[in-house]
Amino acid sequence: MTAPTRRSTQTRLAESMLAARDADAAHAWFARTAEQSRMHVDRVPLDALAGWVTEPGTGNLRHRTGRFFSVESLSVDLPGAPVPHWSQPIINQPEIGILGILVREVDGVLHCLMQAKHEPGNPNGLQLSPTVQATRSNYTRVHGGKPIPYLEHFRDTSAHRVLVDIRQSEQGAWFYRKRNRNMVVEVDGEVEAREGFRWFTLGEIAGLMAVPDLVNMDARTVLACLPGGGGALAGAAVDAFTGALVRSADPAAPGVHTIGDVLSWITEVRTRTDLRVALGPLAGLPGWTREDGVIAHRSGRFFTVVGVDVRADGREVGAWSQPMVEPVGTGVIAFLVKEIGGVLHVLTHARTEAGYADVTELAPTVQCVPETHEHLSARPRFLDEVLTSSRVRFDAVLSEEGGRFLGARNRYVVVETDAEVAPDDPEYRWLTLHQYEELLRHSFYVNIQARTLLLCLRSLVPRG
Amino acid sequence: MTAPTRRSTQTRLAESMLAARDADAAHAWFARTAEQSRMHVDRVPLDALAGWVTEPGTGNLRHRTGRFFSVESLSVDLPGAPVPHWSQPIINQPEIGILGILVREVDGVLHCLMQAKHEPGNPNGLQLSPTVQATRSNYTRVHGGKPIPYLEHFRDTSAHRVLVDIRQSEQGAWFYRKRNRNMVVEVDGEVEAREGFRWFTLGEIAGLMAVPDLVNMDARTVLACLPGGGGALAGAAVDAFTGALVRSADPAAPGVHTIGDVLSWITEVRTRTDLRVALGPLAGLPGWTREDGVIAHRSGRFFTVVGVDVRADGREVGAWSQPMVEPVGTGVIAFLVKEIGGVLHVLTHARTEAGYADVTELAPTVQCVPETHEHLSARPRFLDEVLTSSRVRFDAVLSEEGGRFLGARNRYVVVETDAEVAPDDPEYRWLTLHQYEELLRHSFYVNIQARTLLLCLRSLVPRG
Hints:
7-stranded mixed β-sheet; 34% strand; homodimer
């Protein structure tokens, strides 16, 4: 309930986006923090995970307290899909966590308080993370650990300005209806950056997006939910591509479809897609084996459920054990983009994943692990164009959530295209960045992979 | 993909809303249609329902084809609520049906094609219904019945203008995650009103809202999803109340809260509310009995599951049998409204119902069946003010969906108030009509009872 400042939020976000600073300083801070913190991760058999039990009868993996999360199975019916029925292990974590970034104006420019944080699944240890990344078990202190720094700003926002506050989904292929609360909260007063924390402009973070495995998934999803700067970015364009890019963020720029058309298309897809799922026991899952302390698919494809022991410095809890999902292969996640009428449009795919809370979300043009398709006759649509394009605008390998996924990496790519798609294609639509921004005010429209790519795309706005 | 007409949709909707016509003609048409159609409903024991089976083991009621719907049980945990755990029978109908109203300009004014339709649960037989009211079983012809008139306009909208196309929830106390697709589709060409159908302006329908049990629930939810006329209603005000009412529909009028604040509050409520539900067997449900051919609560409260045989003229199928939910008592559903800064605000309650797809929806200020609270010490908040107020602006008894509910009636009331509510009250907020309109573009924000009341409130705009 703070009085609005003179400049609009969009203008202030645009100014922070265009404020590049000295990247060397950020890297030096990051290297210094890395020296001062350590995390050791050892693989252990699922049967030997301290605190975790295999439930008699169901074979489900759960914590002895019943908190945190469990690994169960999901039986999926999706009539008309290439694979119309399957069963799979899935992480069930009904708790809604907080992913929060604190922002404040420093010398008149918005800065984000970011944290250099280890997660056991990170391939490289430390990654740039939100101010707060807390499950409800964390923040209600089921761990019995130390208090979480800065959490109070997100639990009681009454004295602050709330820029983002929306539940969003995560990977529907690995999580059953997982939702986290994505928050950006602006404080007016002085807030000190503690050890392991640092204030960044949006432009600085944008400059780090292309560094492999640096900006973590939780930071990406929260930042993607921020408005994109709107018309205030206009002056930043330096060529035709960046001109179309900044126009795409402007609500005044015309899209191929109206937002009403896009919403009607989403309704149509969610209505015609007859997804039926049921949680069930992990024991006896067809096609999956539990041997040698891990749960794996007989084909060797998809993912494996493994156990790890973790020892960490500087965490709320110093040591713990947990199951993790370890994907097979590196995914390719790509936006095809095209300038239409002077406005950059993103080719959006309506994707159904078994674990989504609401059937279908807007996904990247391409989202797949190429290896898992090698035994199938049909190639994912547009994959070959992504892999062979000479018009690549963004290309970096980034990690997924290191708290649940072990070494999960995807190659995020933005490619310019001349592809044509029929205006009434059942599965694809061209959207502007501003239309994404409108949808991101609400839950479960834009999937987690598309949120990362939107941030990658925004990072291409030229800075200073 | 039709070219937009010169006048905006809001202007055209406002014009239709202000176009009252001869109410006698509508009543005469209705009476004539009633004479020409009949529906006979006989109660029969659940065990004697043709085509329905009590599933061995679970005791669930389902159709022998596995289609339509089933009656199962829901086990509900809602920590912190006055009743933190209960089990109840619930209707499970995963199919998404279409509730569609066809509109077209007649003499330059938008008209809605409405139908006079029987449903077995209607207390008075015929009610004013949408153009199309079809479950997926209907429109894929599981019934083996006659084709549904006008359905083709909703199944392929490519040649039309889509004004509304959004899935909305229905009663979360009786349905498990029921959603219907609410559609309003505008056609340009000539469309004939068949026997039992008639073209109405929005103003004509508004004039019928206060007639008991006339405008059916399906018509109400679809019409409530239409934009409300925006600033184009401004000229219609005749006094302070109606001035505040039409300003409330105007996006330029300031609300007590921004839409961002409202969305953040919804996120907060949905995050902190730890609703856990599980479908289960109907047999052996604690507190419920299956005796004398019905399922009832031992206390006699809540509702009863009963069976009916139906014979109908002029339907796709001439005779059928089905279970229905018969509520105990008539509910009171009310908006408290107040002029704040010249703009009418509605006091909105964030209500959690076990069957909601997403935990919590925005509900009327009061929504209860007073009798079921008589044995409890706590009266529902604001109920006594509604029952004793001398500032009643709307008061009519309307029916709920007669296809599933037998004689389900609620008293819908709009009352002016001076009540004060803290700006950070955990459960209540003041919203403008335009804010509701923004939320109604998306699924699952505004519950079915609030949608009806919004339409009642809009019907108070003075006409001609």
